[in-house]
Amino acid sequence: MSAAxxxxxxxxxxxxxxxxxxxxxxxxxxxxxxxxxxxxxxxxTTLGKLLAGWLRAGHSGVLHGSLALGAEVLEFRGGxxxxxxxxxxxxxxxxxxxxxxxxILSSVRSTVAEELAFGLENRGVARPEMIRxxxxxxxxxxxxxxxxRDPAQLSGGExxxxxxxxxxxxxxxxxxxxxxxxSLDAEGAGELRALVDGLLDAGTAVVLLSQAADALxxxxxxxxxLDGGTAVAEGPPADVEKGAVLRxxxxxxxxxxxxxPVRLPTAxxxxxxxxxPGSVAPAAAVPVLELRGIGFGYAAAKTPTGRPxxxxxxxxxxxxxxRGVDLTVLPGEIVAITGTNGTGKSTLLRxxxxxxxxxxxxxxxEGRSIAGIRTGRIAASVGLLFQQPRDQLFERTVLxxxxxxxxxxxxxxxxxxxxxxxxxxxxxxxxxxxxxPAELASSRQRLLALATVxxxxxxxxxxxxxxVGLDRHGIERLQHATAAAAARGAGVVLVTHDLAxxxxxxxxxxxxxxxxLREL
Amino acid sequence: MSLHPLTALTAACCxxxxxxxxxxxxxxxxxxxxxxxxxxxxxxxxxxxxxxxVILGPLxxxxxxxxxxxxxxxxxxxxxxxxxxxxAEGLDFALELGSxxxxxxxxxxxxxxTVSVPxxxxxxxxxRVPPQFSFVLASTLxxxxxxxxxxxxxxRAQEARGLVVERGLLSRLAAARLQAVPLVxxxxxxxxxxxxxxxARGFGTPGPxxxxxxxxxxxxxxxxxxxxxxxxxxxxxxxxxxxxPAAVPA
Lengths: 520, 250
Description:
Chain A is an alpha/beta fold. Chain A has helices spanning 44-52, 87-91, 112-122, 127-141, 156-168, 186-201, 215-218, 237-242, 245-248, 345-349, 375-378, 398-403, 406-410, 413-426, 442-455, 472-488, 499-505; strands at residues 4-13, 21-28, 33-38, 61-69, 72-77, 94-97, 174-178, 205-210, 212-213, 222-227, 230-235, 252-253, 289-296, 322-329, 334-338, 360-365, 368-369, 382-385, 460-464, 491-495, 508-513, 516-519. Chain A has a six-stranded mixed beta sheet with strand order 6-7-8-3-10-11, with helices on both faces. Chain B has two domains: 5-115 and 214-244, no CATH class; 130-200, no CATH class. In chain B, 75% of the residues lie in helices and 4% in strands. Chain B has eight helices and two strands. Chain B has helices at 5-22, 25-42, 45-69, 88-114, 117-126, 131-159, 169-200, 219-247, and strands spanning 77-81, 84-87. In chain B, strands 1-2 form a two-stranded antiparallel sheet. In chain B, a hairpin with a 2-residue loop joins strand 1 (77-81) and strand 2. In chain B, helix 6 (131-159) crosses helix 7. The longest helix of chain B has 32 residues, at 169-200. Chain B is flat. At the A-B interface, helix 2, helix 3, helix 4, helix 11 and strand 18 of A face helix 5, helix 6 and helix 7 of B.
């Protein structure tokens, strides 16, 4: 018998004209893994949240269809007589781990153990039993050594495991995981896969929502492919993979064929003074970016007064993250920097435009030191795409967003408008020019943030984990946009945990390891 | 020995009540200084004083204008411009009221910046305060630091897009607007997701709940709290008794 089943004839959010989901059916048996794959905006999360009671019929939208848990079947006809789901009781049977793992945390608990206990506290479980349960689930999820840590201080992989633990501590029969591997490094992903295997062995039915046919998805016995809110294919992975449906739906393939290889422009071929395509870097080409012996560390220890400890001038604190980092980026060159979570990749990028200032060494942009120049000014030469695109966006429309501050750079309003349109076209957002940035799906927000960087045509483009959250279509836009920027003569530095993407899309791949860079 | 959050709360509130009841500016100033000193010892002096400045600055100004310049009962005139006159009595009254408020504000800020929020939530839960109330309280106490962290991230992201904030007021206001948009949208979005997560984790469930975290509440602190409450009550009664004849119109 199935542990859970859903038949969604249609589901539409209140206030939306169209249906977010149509004609999707799902049935999962205990101890099996089912993968729901689709590009961004395909309705995966909506399906997962409906199944787990995070979105409730009547409360969040109108549902026609049925939800079944074990022998209990709830029929929804979109009327006021529909059954009501009690989210607390429902979550005891279907757990859900959101893509943003931190969102499941209560945010008012100070240790991992207390966060784990939160769901039990609310259900009135006696304290001795709670202590047993917390120890058991911590053992199962590999959190035993972290029980006294502050949840806010966990790494991405640890946080994801805590989120899973919070969902499974009440022992649901079904667990829905939304993009569980997103932004995890190889080690974190491996640990999470082991955790899922353990849950499957224990008889939990696991539903995976993902836009990549990754290693985890390949373990699934059944795939459902969503595109535009409807199921376009389903069956055993081997059968589904035969056609072009995965690719058309925007699902990323795992492994060395991440994205389609693009023809990389030859580095420095378009450097000023050199117009011969395919020529090697002329010795005289001025690097667009040069790091000389960068040293940096966050003050880890705090003094008793709460102020960060400062070492004597010129000396590095003991906990330095970067030690003597040297890097030279030529015009037209694409450099990828990889490394595990927490090695300081983002920290290094922030030195390019002065958001962080080195404690040792110096940064040169287009041959000039940026010491003492304000970040807002350096931004004319260095464009930086952050991990959280939403933090970068603030205008009323997509077009205004890209056009922000362009007039000063482009010279005339016409030139600025042209550049804005061109940048939007490069990332495939021309059709959304008048939309509000906040209404875009998160993957399109990332592409919009990329467009705001491209439109300024900086000499150095720095991208922090640009592939995260992008589906196949988005990845292709990103590949072409970075290749085009490099062809124009920009130096591109991208930080990614995705080694396959780095190898396909960069001239050089460097690893940040132990505080310094080495060639891979 | 660390203070039970309720002991700290009681101490702060009772000290504020006693100071208000006493109505003597040297005492108020002494209490305010003591609060500032304790804040410095706890390493939160900068944050407490900044917040106090934001709250008390406008208040002091209005007190000076209202009572310093226009105090009807004042007769010892120190200076006069038309209807506005500085009287010794008016200044005295403004000083009295200002120092009293400053003491109370500093005490409560000291408490809110030093209290361990999880301990406070645990203490309230143990006293059967509705969890929704303690959640709102805890979120409020953690909201300001969380917002500050978020604003910093937004500012960095926007500077990286070429936003230059000049020293002028107009430039700062424009920058504030640009930062407010992602901040507010982000907070609203988070609140929606958080509500769904809290529901799913049984937060809204009626019925008894238990607590994993346990707090030490030594008998000495219970006695201290009772004593502080008695003292505060006595101060209020004493104040009422001594002020009574004067307060009743003849």
